[in-house]
Amino acid sequence: IKRYFGLSSFQSSIQTSISSSVLVRYKADLCGKLSGSSDKMKKLQSRLSEGGKVGGQKVDGSAAFPKSQDFFKTFIVISQNYALNKHLTDHLVTKIKKLDEQTRAWFTDSIDLDQSDLQEDFNWNTLSLQLLAKFLGLVWYMPYYTTQRIPPAVFQTIKESRAESFPMDVRWHHEKAITTGTLTLTLPWICDILLMMDTMGVSLKGARDFLTELNETYIQLTQLGVRSTNQVLLLMKLGRVMEVLVHSHGFFSTRLSRELPHEPTLDSLPLSNCNLLYACCPWLNSLQQAILKNPPSSKPS
Known about the structure:
301 residues, mainly alpha, 14 helices
């Protein structure tokens, strides 16, 4: 798996960035440069330059996979290898489950430690989970990406044949994050899987039911008022999901009866910061540039 997918290259480049300066380099490139194989990468990438296009419901096009990530995305898309993609799916699901659970357990046991010592590890784990989740979403939903309009009869047939809405039980992970107060850790990578979903996948009952639950979480977070960067991160990720997958597909969620925990939890710790916020929400960079180019007028209208 590592030989085909290059997970070790991803993780080593992330670790190099963090060790020199906490998350500063992520705003320029989340993965950095692939060490020791740049010439081979350039040659192989040139061979894949005439790859096919994929459509479907994705956010920001190529911006979702910046720089070195885009190479691996292109490789997966061009390969169209069922056995490889099946191995990747199983491997990525296992890695996400393990890292999410280990991080939750470790931070729960370390909640009384110096918060500044915890922030770097938290940021590293959050970005690692996001990276794994994006590629899991890509591999899982890629067979259903299309730039062509699907006839209604064919659409309905394919829709009925799809047994699973998600590559893993994201609903269970969401509920556990709520009860344990670890939404800041879990919800960002869940959103990254959803943002790779194809248009047809949004219409599946399982997806619509889960989006209803996420909408309730979003409403509850907004009612709390903005109190921390953790909350801003959750609102930005959920807001993107609501914008792209819910409102753009013309259905609205209903209210559920559920409360977020009030006792001190991981979500109550100031573990995230602006660098993590921009790394997890790359569209904020485009928004920031647009505001800088077109500053609001100080003259009264």
